[in-house]
Each structure stands twice: as structure tokens, then as C-alpha cells.
Amino acid sequence: MSVAKNKAKNKNNKERIVDFLFEVGILSKTPRSGFYFLGSGDQSVAEHLNRVMFIGYALAMQEKNVDTTRILKMCLFHDLPEGRTSDLNYVHQKYANVNERKVVEDMTETLPFGDDIKAVWEEYVERKTRESIIAKDADILEWILSLKEQVDTGNVRAREWITVAAKRLKTDNAKKLVPSILKTESDHWWFSDKKDTWWVNRNKEK
User: Fold this and answer.
1) How many CB atoms lie within 10 A of CB 158?
2) Of 7, 13, 63, 111, which residue is least crowded by CB atoms under 10 Å?
């Protein structure tokens, strides 16, 4: 970085941090475009990132000798460029080329913690470390969970998409979750006993 840019970086740290925090807010308004082709469902990139982090944590807890913090940071940052590029699904990617690396460089160049974000994002993209592979599996599993939610609301196409997505998984722990995802209804966590009279009268006498 040039001396001038370095001075600007130090002078405007607070401003750049605030800019960054406003920018990541746009992820809550950036739709995940795969649902357009699926025909049902909707999700923002921010919603996707939120569950990917929980999945990444769950996978990390089942692994030995991995850097959980690193995994969580990759889960958090992996789709960061989409605030500027939008989300390109597999059909879009056949025809459109996006320079996500340039986005990350521009976004992080004058951030005081930009080097860390860039390094984490590059590790994720290069997919050479165990942590990056686990983080990618978390990303894929989030899509599979989202598809299962659509299966449960009647979209038969979504089940075929799950079969394809599951083939992308690399780690054993991620692969082992797929059968349970397929057989578990997405409302099971709160509506497992549908015969419980609570759902009729909330256990009130009248």
C-alpha cells in the first residue's frame, strides 16, 4: 500500500469501519437467486450466512484439531462480495463472470482489519485447508436444509436438487447429516408430537 493510502487508512479508520458496517447491511436485502429457478422459497444472503455459521460450528465441534474460529470467520465472510455483485446461482455462472477477488480487494484495502478479512476469504476460496473444506460443506448443507424446507411445503423439484447438492460434500460428518436431514421434517423441532392436545387447547380447561 502506498504511503498516501496508508495515511488515509489511518486517518479514516472510523469512517471506513462505519462504511463497512453499512455495506454488510445490504446483504439482508440481497436475495439468494437459486430460489428463482427452484420456483418457491426466498432467502437473503444475510439469512444464509447466519445459518452457515451455526452449521460450521456444529461441524467443527465434531472434528479434531481444527481452528473453530477460522471456520466461523470463513462462514461469515465467504459470500461477502455478493453485496456488490449479487448472488449468481449455477445457471448464472454458466454465462456471467464476476471478479469477486477484485471486490474483496476494493472492500478491504482501507479497512484497519481488511487484511484479516482478505486472508480468510482467500483461504476459503482456495479450499486447501481442512477449515476451508469444512466451511464450504457448511455452505452446502445450508442450501440442503433450505431445499428440505421447500420439500416439506410441497416442492417436489427440491428433493432432486438435494441429491445433486449432497454430491458436493467432502467431509464425512457433513455427509452423515444428509440422511437425517432427508427424514426429518423441518418443523420437527417444535411440532414433533402433532397429537399433543396442547396444539388444540394449550392445556386449558376451557
Assistant:
1) 22
2) 7
Q: What is the pLDDT of residues 96-120, one digit of tens each?
A: 989 999 999 999 999 999 999 999 9
**Segments making up each domain of the chain, as ranges:** 3-141
Radius of gyration of the chain from its Cα atoms, rounded to whole angstroms? 20
Q: Whole-prediction pTM value?
A: 0.91
Residue length of the chain? 206
CATH class, 3-141 region:
mainly alpha
Over the range 35-68, which residues count as b (16 or more CB within 10 Å of their CB) and which as e? beebeebebbbbbbbbbbbebbeebbeeeeebee
**Distances in Å between the alpha carbon of 119 and those of 1, 29, 101, 125?**
16, 26, 11, 10
